[in-house]
Structure formats: C-alpha cells, structure tokens
C-alpha cells in the first residue's frame, strides 16, 4: 500500500507542478489569475507530499510543520483566484494580505511547544498529537476557514453571474456553470478533509488514514479535469466590473423613479431595438445601448431588469430569438443551417442559442422549423 501511495503522490505532484508551470509561463493578459492558481497548485502539492517526504526525513522538524501549515494558505488563495476570474478589473491590493492571518495564527500557536523546543520534545509532541490543544485549535480553525471561504466563493460567483445577466448579452453561461462545478468539487473534497481531521482525534484514527489515501488518489484526477476544462475554456468570462451594482441595490439608492421618465425611456429603448437591431452584436452591453439612446446606465438597468422583469441578457435574447424565428419560418431560407442562423442573429454559441430558444418557444430550433 505504501508503494502505491508513493506512486500516486508522485504522479499527483508531477501533474500539479506541470500545470503550475504552464499557468506561470503561458502568454495571457490574465496573469494575476494564472499566478494565483499556480500558487494554489504548488502549495497544495507541497501540502499533500507528506507520504514522499516522510520517506526521506528522520523525524519532526520546523520545516516539516511549516509544510503542514501551508493548508491555511490554500483556500484563501483559491478564493482570490475566484475573485480574479469573476471580475475583469481585479488587481492585487495590500488589503489582501489579511488572508495570511489564519496561517500566521496557526504557526504562532505552535511556537512555544513545537517550533522553539528540541527534537525530542518535537517527537513527543507528534506522538501525543491527539492530546495537544494546539493541533486541536488549528484543526478547528482550518474547518472554520474552509466553511467561510467556500461560502464566500459561492456568494461571489452568484453575484457576478447576476451582474453579468443584468449588464451583458453576449457570451455563454457555460463558464459560470463550469466554475460552479469546480468550486463544488473542491468544497466536497475539503469537507471530506474536515471529516478526516475529526476522525483523526476520535477512537477511529485508522478511518482517517484511509480517507487520506482516498484524497491523495483523487487529487490527480481533479487536477487533470481542471487542466482539460482550462484548455477548453481559456478565456473563461471576466466580463464583470467589480464597481457595478446590482439592480436591487440601485433601487434602494434611487428610492423613486418618475413613471413618466420610465415610459419615455421604454419607448426610446423599444424603438432603438426595432430600428437599429443592436442585438445583432454578440458582445452587446447595456452601456452600449445607454450611450446610443442617451439614457443613464442606472436608469436603463432599472428599467429592463426591474420594471420589465427581465435580465438584460434575456431581454436582448428575446429580440434575437424573434429574429431567428422569422428566418426559420422563411421557406426561401430552408437551406440555411441552424449554426448560420444563430450567428446571424447575434448568438456566439450553439448551446446558449438552443437554451434561449427553447426557453422562449418551448421547442428547439430544429423542432420549431419542422413544425412551421
């Protein structure tokens, strides 16, 4: 079993460091995101390298404990990565150093009875680890950190997706779904880690060891899955400005908007959409329409997302689908493919076109063409 565990750990380390090297060297304008994820991969790989390191070390050491405490940097780094992917204007700020606090606290707790003592005392500390209050404190601190940061990551993703729907019409939501899947997989993995740590201080420590082996065997598969997804979604989305506000917040700020103003703006909006057909632009944003019809973005956003009861994303897609329906009904264009139609009306992916079309008509584009 030890040999198998060493082989799996070695493969996992190779894949993690290879992907980290790729993220650090690939040419892209999103360097901060790549650096953050590369750092996450590296510290995770170092943290899970214990089976191999134990083969070449003679006993407990300060360096070994520092390695073990790197787990406190993993989730904060991943959270910052999620922020950098969701928001196009993400930049490193000094305030982000506050995320080092759990790591510093975890090490300070170990200072008196581990870092500052001799080797024999360190060995005694490890042997009696189940009774050491310092390790119990650190385990509970790690558990709280995992719950806090993954909750924060899900909240960031939910808010950025909503902002995207309220301000953008282009692209696809597949990237959000993929990132949601990835966060969910990691959250599940870390919840299993919590279970492992709880069992470590129970009467069933051997179960904790088996869970640890399972995690080490899963890690290379998860890393490969991420690599596959990353290579197939190199741009992700990064369409949201973090300074944007949700419509619900704008309504609270504005308190009251004159009905006459809303009616005038609505007429201007509908006239512009019908005459100029801006929806044919696959990258159309609410700011583009605001500029053309001379209506402030705040008022236009409230009008569409609140008064009309539609996200801007759905509002624009309604016009695109209506245009696509006209083409599908036209017998003279029966040889025009679905793919050609979706690009012609402003979509840029087949999946988003099919989803929007079925949502509005109840049929897929192919079914609709056959029915008419």
From TrEMBL:
One of its GO terms (molecular function) is sequence-specific DNA binding. InterPro entries: Homeodomain-like_sf, HTH_AraC, HTH_AraC-typ_CS, Tscrpt_reg_AraC-type_HTH. SMART domains: HTH_ARAC. Residues 267-371 form the HTH araC/xylS-type domain. Keywords: DNA-binding, Membrane, Transcription, Transcription regulation, Transmembrane, Transmembrane helix. The chain crosses the membrane at residues 6-26, 35-53, 65-84, 96-117, 137-157, 178-198, 210-228. Gene3D superfamilies: Homeodomain-like. SUPFAM superfamilies: Homeodomain-like. It comes from the Bacteria. This is AraC family transcriptional regulator.
């Amino acid at each position: 079993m030890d040999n198998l565990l060493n082989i799996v750990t070695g493969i996992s380390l190779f894949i993690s460091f290879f992907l980290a090297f790729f993220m650090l060297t690939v040419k892209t304008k999103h360097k901060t995101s790549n650096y953050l994820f590369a750092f996450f991969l590296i510290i995770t790989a170092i943290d899970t390298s214990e089976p191999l390191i134990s083969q070449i070390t003679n006993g407990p050491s300060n360096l070994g404990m520092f390695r073990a405490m790197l787990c406190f940097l993993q989730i904060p780094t991943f959270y910052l990565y999620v922020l950098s992917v969701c928001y196009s204007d993400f930049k490193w700020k000094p305030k982000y150093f506050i995320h080092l606090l759990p790591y510093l606290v975890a090490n300070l707790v170990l200072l008196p009875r581990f870092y500052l003592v001799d080797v024999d005392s360190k060995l005694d500390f490890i042997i009696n680890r189940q009774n050491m209050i310092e390790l119990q404190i650190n385990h509970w601190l790690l558990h709280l950190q995992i719950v806090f940061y993954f909750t924060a990551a899900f909240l960031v993703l939910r808010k950025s997706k909503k902002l995207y729907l309220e301000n953008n019409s282009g692209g696809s939501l597949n990237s959000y779904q993929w990132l949601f899947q990835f966060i969910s997989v990691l959250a599940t993995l870390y919840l299993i880690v919590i279970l492992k740590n709880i069992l470590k201080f129970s009467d069933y420590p051997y179960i904790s060891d088996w869970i640890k082996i399972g995690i080490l065997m899963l890690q290379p598969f998860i890393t490969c899955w991420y690599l596959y997804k990353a290579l197939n979604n190199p741009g992700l989305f990064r369409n949201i400005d973090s300074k944007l506000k949700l419509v619900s917040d704008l309504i609270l700020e504005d308190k009251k908007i004159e009905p006459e103003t809303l009616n005038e703006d609505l007429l201007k909006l509908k006239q512009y959409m019908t005459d100029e057909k801006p929806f044919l632009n696959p990258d159309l944003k609410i700011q583009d329409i605001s500029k053309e019809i001379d209506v402030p973005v705040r008022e236009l956003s409230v009008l569409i997302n609140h008064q009309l009861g539609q996200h801007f994303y759905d509002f624009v897609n309604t016009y695109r689908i209506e245009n696509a329906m006209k083409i599908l009904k036209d017998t003279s264009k029966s040889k025009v493919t679905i793919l050609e139609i979706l690009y012609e009306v402003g979509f840029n992916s087949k999946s988003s076109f099919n989803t929007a079309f079925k949502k509005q008509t109840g049929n897929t584009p192919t079914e609709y063409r056959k029915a008419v």
